[in-house]
Specification:
With about 120 residues, the protein is α+β, with helices and mostly antiparallel strands. It is built from four helices and seven strands.
Length: about 120
């Protein structure tokens, strides 16, 4: 008897939390269709966001650098997509895979100023 009354009260009362209706996905532009970006749009977003930069390694006063390709918004030593070479400024050693560097430039990756200068040293 008590169980029936409790069930009636619960069925008539509103839930203690707000209920939300399903909202359809926004239509940002013509490339956004049914929740999936077209391949052309994916390529454009990926390449515009990549950067070729130096990533620090080594001890505090004995720095060495890796030349890496990574997302533009990630930290200096954060996520990387590819490792193109290294640079040791103390011993003046530089190794850069120019073929891979050129491929990443073709894909739209933006090199940092310091990496551009190092790439010019390799080509000379």
């Amino acid at each position: 008897m008590v169980g029936k009354k409790v069930a009636e009260v619960l069925s008539q009362s509103k839930p203690p939390y707000p209920t939300y209706k399903a909202i359809p996905p926004p239509r940002w532009n013509s490339t956004y269709t049914s929740g999936v970006l077209s391949q052309q749009a994916q390529d454009a977003t990926i390449t515009h966001m990549l950067r070729i930069r130096l990533s620090q390694t080594g001890k505090k006063h004995d720095r060495k650098y890796r030349i890496v390709v990574g997302p533009q918004r990630s930290k200096r030593d954060g996520k990387i997509v590819a490792n193109l070479g290294f640079w040791d400024p103390r011993e003046n050693k530089l190794s850069l895979d120019m073929i891979a560097y050129a491929e990443w430039i073709k894909k739209g990756a933006q090199p940092a100023d310091s990496v551009q200068k190092l790439a010019q040293k390799v080509t000379q």
